[in-house]
Each structure stands twice: as structure tokens, then as C-alpha cells.
Design a protein that fits this description.
Layout (H helix, E strand, L loop, with lengths): L1 E2 H8 L3 H9 L7 E2 L5 E3 L1 H15 L4 H9 L1 H37 L9 H10 L4 H14 L1 H10 L4 H22 L1
Antiparallel strand pairs: 1-3, 2-3
Helix pairs in contact: 4-5, 5-6, 7-8, 7-9, 8-9
């Protein structure tokens, strides 16, 4: 049997972390000593090893509990976490790509003559715009300055035919948007 301080030291955790896990019903001691100290068994030690692994993998306390309580839930929770990490990695890669371009522009001594479609979309996404927000942006641009919108789209390297399609759906969305804002 292990006392709480021994178990904490074995895993490099604080005593308060183990008390928190007890409070959250992730890891309860198997018993108490005559003096009232929490005592943990080998089974508890194995459970704590699993908890530490799940937490290092980024699972929340709730997700860790779900995995420990249900073997069926384990796959689902782990798949969701894996998907979330994948999305985080993709978002970070977009930011990395954008920063690399910014550094390249800076090292070349200024802004490029034009920004391409890929860079423009990456900048909008990095600024927090989703597809709906970008559609609203295009609709407003088309409503306020149709020719400038057209010139801008061509300046991004978008072919004429694609620019016309963007302008058409932007124009269709613009009246509905402007009537809501008045």
C-alpha cells in the first residue's frame, strides 16, 4: 500500500493533484490507515498511471473519467480528442504558413505587389473569419463598390470567370444584407 505522498512522488504529481482526482472521483484510495492516512493499492497505482497517460494526451478530467468508466466510450473519446488535435494542428499550420510568408516579405524588403487568393483567405481565417463572414464581406464589397470588388478579385489572381461567379452570388446576397441593416 502507498500513502498519498509516496504515490504523488512516484508519478511526479503534487499531493493536491491526487486530492483533486479523489474529489473528481477519478482515483479514490482503497483504504485508510489507523491514523487516517489515505492508502493506495497496486490497482490504484495502475489506474493512476492510466490517468496520467490520458491527461498527457490532452484529455480533460471529464473525458478521462468517461474512458475509465466505459471501455466502449474509450474509443469514442479518444477519436474525438484525436480529431480535435488534428484541427488544432491544421490551424497552427495555416498560421505557420502565414507567418513564414510575412517573414519572407519582410526579408525581401517590403510588401509584395499583390497578394494571391490563398494568402488573402489565410489572412482572413487567421483574423477569425469563417465562410459566412467572408460571404458577408464579399456582399458588402460588391454592394458598396462593385467595380473595385471586381478589380480586387482579379488582383488576387482569380480568373475572370471565377470573379464573375463570386460577384454574382455577392450581388444576390447584398440586397438581403442591406435591407436587414437599415
Amino acid at each position: 500500500m502507498y500513502r498519498i505522498s509516496q504515490l504523488a512522488r512516484k508519478f511526479g504529481l503534487s499531493r493536491s493533484t491526487l486530492l483533486y482526482y479523489d474529489q473528481e472521483r477519478l482515483l479514490s484510495p482503497s483504504g485508510r490507515s489507523e491514523a487516517g492516512y489515505r492508502l493506495y493499492s497496486e490497482t490504484d497505482l495502475e489506474r493512476l498511471a492510466a490517468i496520467v497517460s490520458f491527461r498527457k494526451a490532452g484529455l480533460s478530467v471529464e473525458e478521462t473519467r468517461a474512458v475509465l468508466e466505459s471501455q466502449e466510450g474509450e474509443t469514442s473519446v479518444l477519436r474525438k480528442r484525436l480529431a480535435a488535435i488534428g484541427a488544432e494542428i491544421r490551424a497552427l499550420q495555416v498560421q505557420q504558413h502565414l507567418l513564414a510568408r510575412m517573414l519572407r516579405v519582410q526579408s525581401e524588403g517590403g510588401l509584395p505587389e499583390s497578394v494571391d487568393k490563398e494568402t488573402w483567405v489565410a489572412m482572413l481565417r487567421a483574423a477569425g473569419m469563417d465562410d459566412k463572414a467572408m460571404e458577408t464581406w464579399h456582399a458588402e464589397f460588391e454592394r458598396r463598390a462593385p467595380q473595385a470588388h471586381h478589380t480586387f478579385l482579379l488582383g488576387l489572381g482569380i480568373p475572370e470567370q471565377e470573379a464573375q461567379v463570386i460577384r454574382e452570388w455577392s450581388a444576390a446576397a447584398a440586397p438581403a444584407r442591406s435591407s436587414r441593416t437599415r
